[in-house]
Amino acid sequence: MQFLISMHINPAVLDALTDEEKRAIGEGHGRFMADLKESGEFVLTQALVDPSQAAVVSVRGGQPVVTDGPFLEAKEFLGGFYLVDVENRERAVELAARIPDAAIEGLGVEVRQVMFSDGQLEA
Questions:
Q1: I need a labelling partner for 101 at 20 to 30 A (CA). Which of 11, 108, 109, 116 fits?
Q2: What's the pLDDT score for residue 19?
Q3: What is the domain count for the chain?
């Protein structure tokens, strides 16, 4: 079963961390990725740029309209994710709890099962 473990970031929370705390987060992610690869549960991870660098695309009157910046005015934004292939939801939750962000008040880690991939519904 594949699960997306997404990390929701609040820039104000990150800005309040010390350099040592930020370094510990990075090192924690490094260990987490190494452990996932060793266990064979790693599929993919991606980190995303700040939403201020995003483009929001909508279609109005049959024409694309592009605006800069985040779609929503929110404190939190999707900062990145891990895609894992695990035996069950409980294992995905166990892994999510090991992500350094989960231990920081004001940051969030979400676990969602992948419903389909490459156009194929999973049984």
A1: 116
A2: 97
A3: 1
Quote the pTM value.
0.84
Distance set, CA 73 to CA 26, 40, 69 (Å): 27, 38, 10
In a domain, 123, yes or no: no
**Residue 95 belongs to a domain:** yes
81, 45 contact by CB (below 8 A): yes
Q: Which two tokens stand for residue 17?
A: 């961390």
Q: Name the H helices within the chain.
A: 11-15, 19-39, 89-96
Which residues in the chain belong to E strands, given as ranges? 2-9, 42-47, 55-60, 63-68, 77-85, 108-113, 116-117, 120-121
pLDDT confidence bin for 40, thresholds 50/70/90: very high
Write out pLDDT tens, residues 72-93. 666 778 899 999 999 999 999 9
pLDDT band at 123 (very low <50, low <70, confident <90, very high): low
Cβ pair 9, 102 in contact under 8 A: no
Give residue 24's domain range.
2-117
Confirm if 84 and 3 have CB atoms less than 8 A apart.
yes
